[in-house]
TrEMBL record:
Active site: C60 (cysteine sulfenic acid (-soh) intermediate)
Recorded superkingdom: Eukaryota
GO biological process: cell redox homeostasis; cellular response to oxidative stress; hydrogen peroxide catabolic process
Function: Thiol-specific peroxidase that catalyzes the reduction of hydrogen peroxide and organic hydroperoxides to water and alcohols, respectively. Plays a role in cell protection against oxidative stress by detoxifying peroxides.
One GO MF term: thioredoxin peroxidase activity
Gene Ontology cellular-component terms listed: mitochondrion; peroxisome
CDD domains: PRX5_like
Organism: Immersiella caudata
Protein keywords: Antioxidant, Oxidoreductase, Peroxidase, Redox-active center
Record domain Thioredoxin: where: 4-166
Protein name: Thioredoxin peroxidase
Pfam family, one: Redoxin
Protein family (similarity comment): Belongs to the peroxiredoxin family. Prx5 subfamily.
Length: 166
């Protein structure tokens, strides 16, 4: 199965785009997009990357993102510096999704994987969308990588699964 292998370095040249949280929850206010060099940023952090098929979609909203929001304190206590949600949606949709979920700071960032480029590079896509998966990247090294193959499941990519691997 394609993907990332535990123990290997996070790939070079991976970039996402996002709109930084402002603290305002006004969904109509947009910021300017920021390029996020994931390869560089992940070298100095312990990060959980969560890929979802789409912002605001049923499983993604009802159970996936909420599992991370409700477990944020536990994830931070386990040494996670940042949680990053990615999808093929553009950065403004992803920013609105974060605001709709009450996220006011950078503890959870919602980013665009433009054209699902990163997800395609590891083979975890379904059509033009990312599959549902989670990664733990600890100072540039992949320490957990798994994908949910069952539609609607967050068994391998939800916060509880990630907490069990930290």
């Amino acid at each position: 199965m394609p993907g990332l292998t535990v123990g290997e370095p996070f790939p070079e040249g991976v970039a996402f785009t996002y709109v930084a949280p402002t603290g305002e929850l006004d969904l109509t206010a947009c910021g300017l997009p920021i390029q996020y060099d994931a390869s560089k940023e992940f070298a100095s952090k312990r990060v959980v990357v969560v890929a979802v098929p789409g912002a605001f979609t049923p499983t993604c909203q009802v159970s996936h993102v909420t599992s991370y929001i409700s477990n944020l304190d536990k994830l931070k206590a386990a040494g996670v510096d940042q949680i990053i949600f990615i999808a093929s949606n553009d950065q403004w949709v992803m920013a609105a999704w974060g605001k709709a979920n009450g996220i006011k700071d950078d503890s959870i960032l919602f980013m665009s994987d433009p054209g699902a480029a990163f997800s395609k590079s590891i083979g975890w896509v379904q059509g033009d969308r990312t599959k549902r998966y989670a990664l733990i990247v600890d100072h540039g090294k992949v320490t957990y990588a798994d994908v949910d193959e069952v539609r609607g499941s967050i068994e391998k990519s939800g916060a509880e699964a990630v907490l069990a691997k930290l």
